[in-house]
Amino acid sequence: MTPEARASDRDHHRVLGLKSDASPEMIRAAYVRLIKKWHPDVNPAPRAHARFQRVTEAYRALTVADADDADWHAPEQRELDTGQVALAPLRCDRCGDLALQPRHIRFPIIVSALVYSWRRYDAGNFCPDCARKEALRASLITGLLGWWSVQGPFRVPKAILRNARGGEVDFERSLRLIYHNLLAYRHDGEGKVTAELGHLIKTSRQSLSLEASLIIASLPRHEPPATDGPDPWSPRLIQTLQHLLCGAFAPLTALFVAQML
Ligand SMILES: [Zn+2]
Fold first, then answer.
1. pLDDT tens digits for range 140-198
2. Could you tell me if 161 and 146 are in contact, meaning their C-beta atoms sit under 8 angstroms apart?
């Protein structure tokens, strides 16, 4: 270690209120105590943000040297902090475009043959547009192939309604996807997008909301993101009608043909 590095290490220790021989446990305990005290969400003092940043920087500087001591960090974040792995923003499984707020969704598909019905799932991480298309595709297959067994008429309407409502969303997993994007965009210096995604995770009040608010607070310019934009995931009435049509088309055609005979 160079003399300069040793001197700045002493500064980092001082910011955390520790002596230079403090153990990793002591460093972590001091860090947790201080971020609770200075976090801008709990401390309205004007200097709180600057203090919070200094504490975070000092802690990072002291722990990055020994990555094993930072195991409480989310793995993605630790990799970023040590600069070893740069995360790429996630892409939609279907169209391959960057998906800012991807969701992990599965869409039930029913296929029937006389005495039995099979349910399988079409699953993936989708952007809102592709999720709508996948849902419709699942309903179309279900509507064409799902009715034709004893169980079919019971299972098909359920599956169609579920797809019309946007499929079965794994919200916990989706939040992790958004958190992944948040880390990737923060790494790329995209402060506005990072703040937007952080805000989204924070307001979900699920796991990771503390991590998200810590990241928002550590951004260079701490501006609250605009929240009045349209939600790309909000359901549309036309979708429900399309799904009902997909479901009803085959049996109605069959009835029509039967009457003609
Ligand atoms: Zn897509």
1. 999 999 999 999 999 999 999 999 999 999 998 999 899 999 988 888 888 888 988 99
2. no
Distance 132 CA to ligand 1 centre (A): 9
Residue-range domains of the chain with CATH: 3-72 (1.10.287.110), 87-261 (no CATH)
Q: Cα separation of 127 and 137, whole Å? A: 15
Q: Please give the residue that has the higher pLDDT: either 102 or 35.
A: 102
Cα of 177 from ligand 1 centre, angstroms: 14
Residues flanking ion ligand 1, Cβ below 5 Å: 92, 94-95, 127, 130
Please tell me the distance between residue 98's alpha carbon and the centre of ligand 1 in angstroms.
8
Quick one: pLDDT at residue 70?
37
C-alpha of residue 76 to centroid of ligand 1, in Å: 24
With tokens 């049996």, the residue in question is 251
Cα(111) to ligand 1 centroid in Å equals 25
| CA 234 – ligand 1 centroid, Å | 16
Strands of the sheet containing 116-126, edge to edge, are 116-126, 103-113, 168-169
